[in-house]
Structures are given as structure tokens and as C-alpha cells.
Design brief:
This protein is mainly alpha-helical. It is built from 26 helices and no strands. The two termini are about 20 Å apart.
Length: about 500
Amino acid sequence: MVGVRPLAALFTFLIVCALHSAKAAERDSLGEVHFPTSCRSEVRARFDSGIALLHSFEFTEAKQAFGQVEKDDPRCVIAAWGIALATTERAGADAPQKALAQGWAQLQPWLNIKAKTEREQMYVDAVRAMYGGYERTPGAKRWRIYLADMQKIRQKYPDDVNASLLYSLGLVWTAGSGQEGLARRRTALSILMPIFKQHPNNPGAAHYIIHAADTAELAPEALPAAREYAAVASDAPHALHMPSHIFNRLGFWNESIQTNQASARVAADWNKNGREGRFDELHALNNMEYGYLQLGQDEQAYGIIQQIDALAKTGSDAWLSIDARIYFDVETHNWQDAMKIEPPTESKFEENFDAFWIRTIAAAELGEPHEAKLALEDFRKSSERWVQAHGWGDVLHVALVEAQAWTLFVQGERDKAIAQLRSAGQFERDHPLYYADILPRPTAEMAGDMLLRTGRPAEALVAYKEALQFAPNRLDSLLGAMTSAKRLRNAQAAAEYAAKLKEEGATLALRP
């Protein structure tokens, strides 16, 4: 279930670091970008560095670069646009109220200065619309206005690559789940793919293709971009991590581990040099742990948890270590440890759904129906409050069905439990979901586990095959399919699944 909660920003650096970071960014390999401006010639290179950082989601560094441009050219209104957009980070119009209030306050003085060109003014007007009335106007409405304004820029200035990139990214962020969301992602890809072909070294093109295609259905389309992006912006920690979104979707675990190792290494160097790399370092470590777990390299995965624990002691989000432990316990079936997982003491009830979910599953796996039922009720209430405040209703709906199914299973209602998981699996196939972080166990894989335990290997094999279509090369699905084939005395199929495991370098040892 873990992977829903977006990671919080982890460090705020002193303003005295701004000039150092902006100059460092200009020396970095961040890809090839150009954003024509009417600003003074001496600030244009730094402005382009800010755009490159923005396209690779290095938001603090981007704000620092744009801030230095503001100081060096007090008439460069478009720099204020850059700061305003970077302040919303990945959330855009749905950014937290605190971030919107900060960005709006910084933007206000610049709104009284008219940009020197119509195009630059259109950009400023678009970000003004994203913020305008944020205290009372829903984010969805502000998103619509912003995207309409960005579409106008695209139409009036068809050669403006940045307008198309940012418009496409907005389509992705507002796509949501389901077939309608999938169609919106395909629209974004129809814009992004030609840009990537024409400008393969533009970091925004490769990056946004990966985000647009970050679903089971679309991931293969982004593989070329995934394999290029890390080289395009090799000094940006987030750029080094992003290919793993597609590698994870396709089950390319070694490639995922390698690109995240590079990301964590560069992010750690940023931290040492007074730049903000902690978020990227932790995010890369999360994905490395997941990759190792899918190869059955549990000792290496546990070593990653220890690294996360050490970093978390420096004042990071307390959930980081807990979620890493949940990943580990789910994949290694360490249900005894999972039962001991507690939320951080300062965490609000609505934030604790991950801990309640894993406790429900663990209690069911350990044959404790009473404990499973209690944890299920906590999960239900916690997730409902989270959805009311933050969204992610579809994702948490699937998680709730999983928790309910395992509770039914341990209560002896096995057929009903399997039917619920099959229904959730169909929902996943008919209603494509987007996950912000680590991919969860497919519900079809869980159904396969239940079917095996009830002596129905033929049905279990079908379920594991469905899971592998949704999430290729998952270790538990491959092991489950191999076990099902053996019980059916289908030696050829069992050997094929064993070969698939060996092909990626995974261990054949069955987990508990």
C-alpha cells in the first residue's frame, strides 16, 4: 500500500547559499534549453539554467537561479514567473496553501510591472491565474484557467518549446486515474514525443514523457526517453532517478538500481556542497530498496533501510524509515515485524493509513482475525479522512478492498475474499491508476496467493499471469507462477518462470 503519501520537502537552506547554488547550476550538465527573454544579456544564461533546473524538478535550485536574475535585472519580470512556478513544485494549482501564499506574496510586486514582450506577459498572466483566488477558488478551476492560458501561448507562438512542455506537464498533473486520465496522458505524449525527437537533449521533453507514461499501459512508450534522460541531465539528481519510474513499470530491476545509485550519489554530493539534494537522495534510496527486493537481494535492501534510517535522524520526515520498513516486510513476508510497526508519535490519525494497512494484512497472514478486523477499521477511518483532505481516493479504495479481502480470508470466508480481490484487479485494469511513489503489490498477485493456499493452482496461475501483465518481473508473482506450474505438473511452464527470474538475476529461493 505504501507509495501514496507524497514525501515532504526535507531541508530549507539559508539565503546566503543562493548565489553559490545558482553559479554551480550554470556549470552543471543539465541539458540543452533556451527560453528567449527580453532581460539583460548578462542574465540570460543564468535564466536558462533556471529553466533547465525547473524542467528537472530541482525547484529550490531553480528558485535561487531565478532569484539571482531578479536581483541582477530588476526589470526582468519573467524571472518572477519562474519563481512562482517553481514554488508550486509538482502540485501546481493544487499546491499546499502555505506554498501558494508564499508564491503569491513573492509574485505580487512584479504584477505591477508590465513585461517587455507580449509573450512574456502571457506567461506571467498564466501563473497569475494558477494562483489567483487560491484561498477560495478550487485548484481544479485554477488548473483549467492556467492550462487554457498556456494553450494560448502555444497557439500564438508555435515554436515556443517551453510552452508546449509546460502545457503537457499540466495535462499530466491533472490527468487523474481511469480511462479519461489515460486519454489525457496520451494527449500529453502526442505533444511531447515530437519535441523529444526534435530536441533529444532537452531535459523537459524526456522528463515529462516519463511522467506522462508512468502507467502500466503506457510505460513501454517512454523507454527511449527513460534511457536518454539520465545522460541528458547527468548532474541533476532527480533526472538520474526518473528513468527508474519506467524501469520499475517494466520490471528492469538492475537498470532501476543503477540509475538510482547514480541519483543518490549525486544528491549526496549536492548535500555536501550546500545544495538541496536530500529529497532526491531519499527518493532514490526508496527505489533502490524496491529494486533489490524484486531481485530477492534482501540483505542489500535491508542495508538501504539502514541508510534511510541514518538520514532520517537528521530531521527528515519520520515516515521515511517506517515506509521503508513496510516495503521490506510486505515483500519479504515478515509479518511478525509488520505487526510491530507504529506510526510516528507526532503523526495525525489521517496520516497513519499505511501502518493500519500493513497491520491488517499482517494480522490476517498470522491467522489473527480479531486483530485484522481492528486494524481494518482503523485503516478505513484513517484513509477516509486522508481522502477528504488530500484526495487519492481511487488508490486508497483499492487498498481498502485488499485489506477487507485479507480480513475475510482469515475469518474463513475465502471465496468471498478471492472474489473481492478479483473485482479490485478488474478495477485496476479498467481504471488505470497513477502511483506517486513505489508501486504496490498487484491485487491479482494477492489473489494468486489466496488461490494457492486454497488448493487451486490452475486459477492461481491465471491470477499471477494477470499480475505480471500489470507489473512485469515482480519476484512474488514469478515465484507464485512457478509454484503454481509445478503443482500442476507443468514442468515447461515452471522452467520458463524460473528462467525469467534468472534472466534478471533474481534469486529462486522461495520466501516464507
